[in-house]
Amino acid sequence: MKLKTLAAGLGAAAVASMLAGAAMAQQTTLRIQTHYAPETVSGKLAQRFVDDVQVMSNGEIAIEMFFSSSVVNSVEGFDAAATGILDCEMHGGAYQTGKNPAFQFVGDIMGGYDTPYQQLSWLYHGGGLEAAQELYNKFGMQLIGWWVYGQESLASTKPIRGIADLKDWKFRSPPGLETNIFASLGASPIVMDFTEIFTALESGIIDGADASGIANNVGLGLYDIAKYTNFPGFHSMPSDHLACNKARWDGMPEHHRRIMERAMESLALQTALTFEKANNEAAAKLRAEGVEVAEWSTEDRAAFRKAALAQWEPFATTPEAKALVESHMAYLRVLGLAE
Fold first, then answer.
1. Is 97 in contact with 311 (CB distance < 8 Å)?
2. Greater confidence, 23 or 119?
3. Tell me, what's the pLDDT at 8?
4. Disulfide engineering: 36 pairs with which of 43, 65, 89, 110, CB 3.0-4.6 Å?
5. pLDDT tens-digit map of 171-205
6. Phi, psi of 28 (to 5 degrees)
7. How confident is the model at residue 154 (pLDDT cuts 50, 70, 90)?
8. What's the rounded Cα separation, in Å, for the pair 243 and 48?
């Protein structure tokens, strides 16, 4: 009888403990914006990230994802998170070069690394995350991680077969270092929001666009208008980031922060692997549909890298930017990509 009473008591205590634990389970709700449309490859990967986080946290973390920059313009996402309009944003550091040119070197290291794996290696094993975190923290933000889809391809209504075709080529450019590099090669970059590209191409305001990787460009419908592109890419490999309001991040339970960090590492790997396949499939599809897919010569690619690296130091006008350039150059030498 005593054993039954004890068992019953233990059972009741266990149930009570479980109920108390459930009541004490901390909940985190995050509003996150990305510039990607949900139907693009990157948009689908972002949704996978949301699902991973929610499942791994057993529903303790709920994410409301706003696609296609539906809350604020892409360039405004960082400030929207810093001021609490959003909790986090999944755009890229290169949008914030107006705050500090150092953001260029954590957002789009133009003419630097050849593959996503090299670039991610700098972040996680080359001291990059620590250096970048100091920069983000100055603006009340926390860098959680990167997702890098590889070298971008251009979209153009005119042939874009090499350096010579950049002469007087009027194209959409993101803000920052890219405008300096392409202008030095004779092009006419026009800075505009990511969401304005399709209309600008359609109306002839621009001849072409630097938008995204070739698979994403297909998803955006750019090649319905622009019948010229290049692949593989050579000029730009943006690091899309997850950056959160630092006070919001610091207030999250440690296990929630760990889940978010590991989910970002998974997103980074899956993004690189997915686009390795998706970009090649997209290029083959475009060729079959009559879009000219140019592969730039070794000489033209080398000329672009030389022009890009020549612009790094002049662009790095702050101590933070100079430090990041030195960090990248040191790691590029480790990888044998710079002298």
1. no
2. 119
3. 52
4. 43
5. 999 878 999 999 999 999 999 988 899 999 999 99
6. -125, 125
7. very high
8. 18
Q: What is the pLDDT of residue 20?
A: 45
**pLDDT tens per residue across span 265-276:** 999 999 999 999
| Distance, CA of 62 to CA of 56 (rounded, Å) | 11
In angstroms, rounded to a whole number, what is the distance separating the alpha carbons of residues 90 and 66? Answer: 10
**At the top level of CATH, which class does the domain 29-150+238-277 belong to?**
alpha beta
Domain boundary assignment for the chain: 29-150+238-277, 153-235+285-334
- In sequence order, which ranges of 162-196 are alpha helices (DSSP H)? 177-184
The residue whose two tokens read 């922060």 is 257
For domain 153-235+285-334, the CATH architecture is: 3-Layer(aba) Sandwich (3.40)
Q: Residue 280: enclosing H or E segment and its boundaries?
A: helix 254-288
* DSSP string for 48-113: HHHHHHHHHTTTSEEEEEE-TT-SS-GGGHHHHHHTTSSSEEESBGGGGTTT-GGGHHHH--TT--
pLDDT for residue 194: 82
